[in-house]
Amino acid sequence: MSVAPALTATNLFKTYGSVVALNGADLQLYPGEVLAVVGDNGAGKSTLIKCISGAEVPDSGEITLAGDVVKFHRPQDGRHAGIETVYQTLAVAPALDIAANLYLGRELRKPGPLGSIFRMLDNGAMKRESKSHIADLGISTIQNIGQAVETLSGGQRQAVAVARAATFSSKVIILDEPTAALGVRESNQVLKLIERLRDRGLPVILISHNMPQVFEVADRIQVQRLGKRAGVVTPKTHQMNEVVAIMTGALKVEEKDQTLQPVR
Amino acid sequence: MSLSAAEVEFQSNKGPEPLKERLQAKLHQYPSISPVMVLLISGAVFWILNPNFKDPFNLSLVVQQVAVVGAVAVGQTIIILTAGIDLSCGAIAVFASMVMGRTAFANHLPGWQSLIIGLLVGTAAGAFNGFLVTKIKLPPFIVTLGTFNIFNALTLLYATGRDIQASEMNSTLVWMGTTFKAGRFQITLGVILMLLMYLVLSYALRFTAWGRHVYATGDDVEAARLAGIETKRVIFSVYMVAGLIFALAAWILIGRTGAASAINGIDLNLDSITAVVIGGTSLFGGRGRIIGSFYGAVIVGVFRDGLTLAGLPPYYQSLAVGILVITAVTIDQWIRKANK
Ligand SMILES: Nc1ncnc2c1ncn2[C@@H]1O[C@H](COP(=O)(O)OP(=O)(O)OP(=O)(O)O)[C@@H](O)[C@H]1O
Ligand SMILES: [Mg+2]
Q1: ipTM above 0.90, yes or no
Q2: CB contact under 8 A, B6 and A183
Q3: CATH class of B32-338
Q4: Is A107's CB within 8 Å of B9's CB?
Q5: What are the pLDDT digits (tens) for B190-246?
Q6: pTM for the model
């Protein structure tokens, strides 16, 4: 028996000038799982998820969402399809406040003619909604919703980006190193949040260099090396040092030792 | 109980900050503070130097004189907010004024038709800049340096070496020069139109999604793109709207000078940037208030007028404006550093 994947990427190629960032990359994400993507710096992890989210257009290859082939040309194409992404660079607007950042690109307008004719933003509603979303997500590091993002600490900014993605994702959520700037407690909050999203049935792609975190939260671990998939394993079948060995190319995993089917 | 790094950092944010940081933060939050201060202080000084300065007639004159540059500065501000620049704004205004004047004079069109054609030409000129910036991906400085020369050349070509006087134009085109009394002050319709433009654009920047996207795009274009904003469409729309604004300024210009001429308003290119910068809008984009540019334009007007009344030769005006610009940019750099 086989479960239909929520999202697939097949044989993606992407070059920047003479740099080959993706060299025939594959990925399958199954419903309700956390798929960690690990690999050395420059292995093409961020490029892979950017091609999936629509932030970059692959030179060739195919992406499917819930079985349908999709072709995204802009980040909002992926967004409209229900894919939300926390980019490694966070993609927040520093001068705008937290609520404005949460609703950036999908602002709420006032009801009635004020909104439809005068295009007036409903700042009150966006603030209220943001506050309740952030409370629901259990992100305690954000206090004042009206604070400009540039006045936040690095970790708080990261929390804003995570909150935005978690609030609006409906099909897939992608997190590119979401805990890189977070303290221990905040990292744990994000890991808990990832588990809650998964329990809601939302599949998660998590990129991280933090092996203990990956082993704590991931159902399967995809190792990315030189722009393609070197193997997919699980925390049960492989040890941390083995994963690192696959990353560096010291260890090859046979297809039969990989976990290409969902484990939950 | 131990605190995580983020919490410690958060708490340290809350402690009493030294005066310098507090000032930086306030100026950052309200970029119009410094231009308003400069305006009040310089006004007071010029009043002391020559009591005639505060005469309603004189103050009215100052405002009338800055109507055109104030209007152009509205368009310049939204462009600078996207981290762009428009060196061709004056050339677009002069070109639009020549189109209005000549279609009325040579083609005998009714005034309102000439006006609409002029506004369309200005909008198209702005859209052309926007096209070169977003589609051909050239730096705004280079694009508008090029189109500045092109629009100038087109104006001279079209003008056939002759100004159009007010008497040769339909009254619609000189309408903006109409003066009326407001208390002891004398205001022109051009001043009203300029103020209306500030009102409308302030609203759009503050209360609409478009305005929010303009700020986000100017702040960090790649972040805005990843956050799902059509940054190219935003930038294109800004140059196009600015073109329309420059053409409206051309209408004010015809009313102010009583003619459509190829040389009137040629200083607008740099003067508008001066007003925007003195008004506290950052040349690096994403930070500033449009009303600041109005203060900036008035400050320049006040300095020119006040120094003349104080009996100083005209080159002191240039000196003062130069110092103002450099001071304004220095303050901007200082404020930005506080938040890095
Ligand atoms: N916009 C770009 N322009 C040019 N080269 C790029 C660009 N983005 C990525 N690359 C190159 O593509 C390769 C893969 O980069 P990518 O960011 O996907 O790596 P990564 O696995 O996410 O690394 P890290 O762990 O450091 O985030 C690198 O060699 C990088 O230099
Ligand atoms: Mg990366």
Answers
A1: yes
A2: yes
A3: mainly alpha
A4: no
A5: 999 999 999 999 999 999 999 999 999 999 999 999 999 999 999 999 999 999 999
A6: 0.92
